[in-house]
């Protein structure tokens, strides 16, 4: 039988990576996109013009799908309060009609300090930020739908994304400047404070393996161990090594500039809200994932960093 997947958010990093991996695995993949973004749909993916805020458009695009990848987010963190939950409700309604599985890329935002520093899949979710509360509600609605027997829901959680296609990421927007060989690398972390990273191709591979696995429960939540930078300096040092420029300047990230701009612009304000994740070590326990799959896909850091820099136009 033909395996059909619908991807919402295919022009984003994780949506695009999952779509490409599904195509490679022989899936028939559709993507719901606005007309002006149709040219950005990955090769092998069928573009369906529509809006994730339009329930009828989502339902039509999802017809016959066994998996809906819900990787859509408002750009620049704008309108989270009014957009995020209605989009998810449209996905749940479409999945209910098709008895489909919903795949949601999870975040660490759901958790508070009571679950740090090593977060298990079963840890309580006591969000301490506005975005965290919204993400908690998203997962609560998915669990309720799965418990009702209408849909299946799969959440896969990883660290900060980096990799080809992850242009809207801390790596691409905080550590370096894309488009040229970096002259300076900025480190948002405090020396000695660990930080978790998720390499997009590894995350996409993990997600697709789970989607195709026949032992995943109706509601499932899996964590990825990813790339753990235990010193808070391993990532920036790997960038310098990949650039073959060990003397490139590594400087602290200018949090002070974000703080000054936060009262006047939304993006700095949203980034400042997440600073606490750089001020203390926060790691994900992938024990349940390993128990199910036997291993976690894991590209060596040096290889992953070189591929990311090349995709961003930063290699010499």
From TrEMBL:
Organism, scientific name: Novosphingobium capsulatum
Domain NAD-dependent epimerase/dehydratase: 5-217
Chain coiled-coil ranges: none
InterPro entries: Epimerase_deHydtase (IPR001509), NAD(P)-bd_dom_sf (IPR036291), NAD(P)-dependent_oxidoreduct (IPR051783)
Signal peptide extent: none
Pfam families: Epimerase (PF01370)
PANTHER family the UniProt entry points to: NAD(P)-BINDING DOMAIN-CONTAINING PROTEIN-RELATED, PROTEIN YEEZ
Protein name: Nucleoside-diphosphate-sugar epimerase
